[in-house]
Amino acid sequence: MKPRDAAELLRLPAALTVPGDSLAGAAAAGRPYGGRTWAAPAASVCLYLAGMALNDFADADLDAVERPERPIPSGRVDAFEALGLAAALTGAGLTLSAVAGGKRALRVAIPLTATIWTYDLWAQRTAAGPAVMALARGLDVLLGAGGDPRRAALPALAIAAHTAGVTTLSRGEVHGATPATATAALAATGTAAAATAAATALAGPRRRTRDRWAVAASLAGYAATVGRAQLAALRTPGDAGTVRAATGTGVRGVTGLQSALLAAAGAPVVAGALTALGGLARIASRKVSPT
Question: In this structure, is the dihedral angle defined by the CA atoms of residues 31, 265, 45 and 157, taken in order, positive or negative?
Fold first, then answer.
């Protein structure tokens, strides 16, 4: 497998949007893993990339018709090579989860892994697809929070709602969406923004003036990018190109929510780093598609 083909198979630019899930969860829960907090984002990235490889393995027949340029149908990557890579990355993700928080982290990482494999092998082609994908990203937040659903509930809801909207809209990347689908995606984006705003309001006593400005800037950037792209898709839902562009913007745009959540928890430097990662993902997406 050549590096370029692996990058396309794994949709590497999208992986830059993943560390913020567990970091936001860790910040909301008071950084439960201490000095090993770094291991949870690394585990999240491995599990996410495993899902990307497994997705192409499961979709090989469909991609041969709809996206023949993808690595497997084009013959650049063998399907079982992708499956082996997915299994290896899954093992790495679970190992890093154990490093991060032992049994406490594995109580979340194992259901998260099961959700990812369920989505790729079954749910993605059913009506349950967006909900299952949303569950995976919500669990990813809880992975960073040490499985504390009380303190990380709103951050998990925000990321899950955003993911449900992006996944719903992504089903129209090839043939176009419907007005109902585009409306649902925009509504999910609104829910994600509202949940993030609620989470930052609850963290109010901990915030300094600079943190408030960072939160406001992150949420405004989220609305200006993801919201605007989805509005364009709503205006012309039958245009697959517009829907595909909105999906890509949505994949990258989650960093705006993550940055707001981290700034609200008093971690503006990490929030700024995530914003920079979002910009890097945008640049990398010009070379390798994140969807």
Answer: positive
Q: How many residues does the chain have?
A: 291
Query: Within the chain, where are the H helices?
Result: 3-10, 12-15, 19-28, 39-58, 60-66, 79-121, 129-144, 153-170, 179-202, 209-222, 228-235, 240-264, 268-284
Q: Which amino acid is at 219?
A: L
- Residue 250 near residue 3 (C-beta atoms within 8 A): no
- Does the predicted TM-score (pTM) go above 0.85? yes
The two structure tokens encoding residue 209: 């003036």
Tens-place pLDDT, residues 134-176: 999 999 999 999 988 888 999 999 999 999 999 999 999 999 9
Question: Whole-angstrom Cα distance, residue 23 to residue 191?
Answer: 21
Distance CA(76)–CA(46), nearest Å, equals: 22
Q: Which amino acid is at 87?
A: A
Rounded distance, CA 214 to CA 176, Å?
36
| C-alpha Rg value of the chain to the nearest Å | 18
Task: Report CA 200 to chain centroid distance, whole Å.
Answer: 20
Rounded Cα distance between 218 and 225, Å, is 11
d(CA 115, CA 132): 7
Nearest by Cα to 168 from 126, 118, 109: 126
Token look-up 């990235």 returns: 45
The pair of structure tokens assigned to 231 is 């509005």
For 20, residues 6+ apart whose C-beta sits below 8 A from its C-beta are 41, 254, 255, 258, 259, 262, 274, 277
Q: How far apart are CA 199 and CA 156, in angstroms?
A: 10
